[in-house]
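hiii so um. not sure if this is the right channel but i have a protein structure encoded as tokens and i wanna go backwards to a sequence. like what aa goes where. can anyone help
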């Protein structure tokens, strides 16, 4: 004979796949009825037509069958507006402090911010952001990625994300892809429409990305900034003074020269520079010969100017790589370089932080 308490206890371990909280804690479980070895109950979904209904159903069934139940009947409903408002308020409390500041910006939040920036476009800043985020997640870290390249967002396409975040009232649940929680302007600008807002609007979006998103607990937040030293970069610098910075350049003289400006801004805003990533550093022939298609030395020059180091030299991807998305296979040469970079960064930051 199973008891209602046992069912409730078993369901405490079942999490909402998006909110990563127990469905019991989220008040999604109602009307449990136990008759011998048969259990029926109601699951109240946060939104109607929840795309993860099948997953929740499977997890609930497994949890109850684990108690020895021979039959499990689940009926589904959705939260009322009032219930959803209460849930949003609770989620917001997790994400925002009493004075309205994004909770993850507080010093004791345990979140390490890394901004990825470049002097000019097209050097691979977003590619580095995406692959570094995935590599950090591969180390078992809880990673969020904010595509803060508001005008030129590309992260969803690069990661092959086709779905949009679930919205619970005005709170967004980030989309998870390759183990990384992602939020991007691309999710909110319909049909790939160009984004033409100006400074104050942008500031609001970045703030929303931090505070109006249910991130859950994270170790790292990576921000893919727009190239250069525009509004967003300045806002982020002011909003997240504790952010560490990675500057991406190619070996080309002009790219590294322009990147110096982005780096100088980091020094000026007192962002710690983690180092320079030299992307498209060389092309490696099958026989191992390296061809320096874009020249040599841009990364080193930039690192010298900014008194930092080149922390990775990433070659050109082989033609057969990243056909569908810009995510490199973990076992590829590039994938391995990103894994080492993630390990080095994690070692440096975890070693130097108090966590
Ligand atoms: N190591 C690499 N090998 C081959 N192609 C690369 C490499 N790194 C980036 N690319 C390609 O170069 C192009 C530009 O990369 P990406 O969009 O990451 O640059 P970006 O600096 O973020 O540019 P923007 O700021 O304009 O968005 C993309 O098509 C990407 O797939």
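sure thing!! here u go:
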């Amino acid at each position: 004979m199973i008891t209602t308490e046992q069912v409730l206890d078993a369901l405490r371990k079942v999490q909402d796949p998006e909110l990563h909280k127990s469905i019991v804690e989220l008040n999604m479980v109602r009307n449990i009825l136990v008759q011998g070895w048969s259990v029926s109950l109601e699951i109240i979904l946060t939104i109607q037509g929840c795309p993860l209904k099948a997953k929740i159903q499977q997890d609930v069934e497994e949890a109850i069958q684990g108690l020895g139940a021979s039959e499990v009947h689940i009926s589904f409903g959705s939260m009322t507006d009032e219930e959803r408002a209460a849930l949003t308020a609770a989620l917001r409390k997790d994400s925002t402090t009493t004075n309205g500041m994004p909770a993850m910006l507080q010093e004791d939040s345990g979140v390490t911010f890394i901004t990825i920036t470049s002097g000019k476009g097209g050097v691979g800043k977003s590619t580095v952001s995406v692959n570094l985020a995935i590599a950090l997640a591969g180390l078992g870290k809880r990673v969020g990625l904010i595509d803060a390249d508001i005008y030129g967002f590309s992260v969803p396409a690069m990661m092959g994300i086709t779905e949009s975040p679930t919205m619970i009232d005005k709170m967004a649940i980030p989309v998870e892809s390759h183990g990384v929680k992602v939020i991007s302007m691309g999710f909110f600008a319909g049909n790939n429409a160009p984004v033409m807002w100006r400074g104050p609007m942008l500031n609001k979006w970045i703030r929303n990305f931090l505070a109006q998103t249910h991130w859950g607990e994270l170790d790292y937040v990576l921000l893919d900034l727009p190239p250069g030293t525009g509004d967003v970069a300045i806002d982020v610098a002011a909003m997240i003074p504790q952010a560490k910075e990675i500057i991406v350049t190619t070996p080309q003289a002009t790219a590294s020269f322009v990147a110096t400006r982005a780096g100088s801004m980091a020094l000026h805003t007192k962002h710690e520079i983690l180092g320079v990533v030299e992307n498209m550093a060389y092309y490696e022939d099958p026989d191992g010969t390296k061809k320096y298609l874009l020249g040599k030395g841009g990364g080193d020059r930039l690192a010298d100017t900014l008194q930092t180091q080149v922390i990775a030299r990433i070659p050109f991807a082989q033609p057969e790589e990243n056909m569908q998305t810009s995510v490199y296979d973990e076992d590829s040469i590039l994938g391995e370089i990103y894994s080492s970079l993630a390990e080095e960064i994690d070692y440096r930051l975890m070693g130097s932080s108090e966590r």
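oh and The CA atoms of residues 6 and 293 lie 65 Å apart.
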